[in-house]
């Protein structure tokens, strides 16, 4: 009788505290139990939170981490000591910054190429002032906002960071951020080759069918640095003007360079202005 009473009392306490019990875990298949343990070991989350995230993602481990780090009530408090250790791993030995060598090691640890667009998205989250550099404040604050304090945790966020480029509002923010991030310090304009590289990166996956024509036009006809106005207006052009130029208005307030691009397209039979 007493063992039964204690058993029932234990169940009652577990229920009242809303803690996932041994009995809940015991009902899971081996594969699900292993995923729960793997999630806990990487995230440091409780068993209850691990099961909640995994169930929400239909037991997809990568999806569970994405769910976990994007839900404010679940997002963990990061360990500032781990962030400091990470920063020191990548910090330049001669200055209080993460510079090119540190960025390369950071990418190596993340198993991504330095030219991978996800590095631009990470830099946007860190509000980095300059390409291939992170200040201590940028690096640590950025990871805090992302809710991660280890490379393994950040790895599990990479797919959701890439997916942010599919969100039009975030894409615009990242696109506008990229101009100042990519230009050389002290310069108002963006070097042409750098601008072309950034456009090819940002407009990959056929987001704008005319991107390669635009880059060829610039190399053939412009060959000068790109202003902030041209950078911003090109995004508007790519988002509002049909690739066949069916809704292009020659009287519109486009920068002169974009008007010249339209002439280049029509002269080369790539697109045709209406009327």
Which keywords apply here?
single chain; 275 residues; mainly alpha; two-stranded antiparallel ribbon; 15 helices; 2 strands; 63% helix; globular
Low-confidence stretches: 1-23
Q: Main sheet: which strands, in order across? A: 1-2
What sort of overall outline do the alpha carbons produce when their principal axes are compared? globular
Distance between the termini: 93 Å
Total number of helices: 15
How much of the sequence lies in strands comes to: under 5%
Q: Which class best fits the helix and strand makeup?
A: mainly alpha
Specify the helix fraction band: 55-70%
Count of extended strands: 2
Q: Secondary-structure element order, as H and E?
A: HHHHHHEHHEHHHHHHH
- Average pLDDT works out at 85
Round the Cα radius of gyration to an integer and report it: 25 Å
Q: Major β-sheet, in short?
A: 2 strands, antiparallel
Please describe what this structure looks like.
The chain is an all-alpha fold and 275 residues long. Helix content is 63%, strand content 1%. The longest helix has 15 residues, at 2-16. The N and C termini lie far apart (93 Å). It has a two-stranded antiparallel ribbon.
Brief description of this entry?
The chain has 275 residues and is mainly alpha-helical. Helices cover 63% and strands 1% of the residues.
């Amino acid at each position: 009788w007493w063992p039964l009473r204690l058993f029932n009392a234990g169940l009652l306490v577990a229920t009242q505290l809303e803690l996932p019990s041994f009995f809940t875990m015991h009902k899971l298949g081996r594969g699900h139990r292993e995923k729960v343990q793997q999630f806990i070991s990487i995230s440091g989350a409780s068993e209850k939170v691990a099961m909640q995230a995994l169930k929400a993602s239909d037991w997809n481990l990568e999806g569970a981490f994405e769910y976990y780090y994007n839900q404010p009530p679940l997002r963990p408090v990061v360990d500032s000591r781990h962030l400091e250790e990470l920063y020191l791993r990548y910090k330049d030995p001669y200055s209080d910054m993460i510079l090119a060598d540190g960025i390369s090691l950071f990418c190596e640890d993340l198993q991504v190429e330095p030219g991978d667009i996800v590095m631009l998205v990470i830099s946007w989250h860190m509000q980095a002032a300059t390409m291939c550099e992170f200040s201590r404040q940028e690096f640590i604050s950025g990871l805090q906002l992302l809710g991660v304090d280890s490379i393994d945790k950040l790895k599990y966020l990479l797919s959701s960071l890439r997916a942010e480029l599919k969100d039009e509002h975030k894409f615009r923010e990242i696109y506008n951020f990229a101009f100042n991030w990519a230009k050389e310090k002290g310069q108002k304009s963006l070097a042409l080759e750098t601008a072309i590289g950034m456009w090819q990166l940002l407009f990959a996956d056929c987001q704008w069918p005319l991107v390669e024509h635009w880059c060829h036009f610039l190399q053939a006809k412009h060959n000068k640095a790109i202003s902030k106005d041209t950078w911003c207006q090109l995004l508007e052009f790519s988002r509002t003007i049909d690739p066949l130029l069916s809704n292009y208005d020659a009287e519109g307030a486009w920068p002169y360079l974009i008007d010249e691009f339209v002439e280049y397209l029509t002269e080369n039979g790539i697109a045709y202005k209406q009327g």
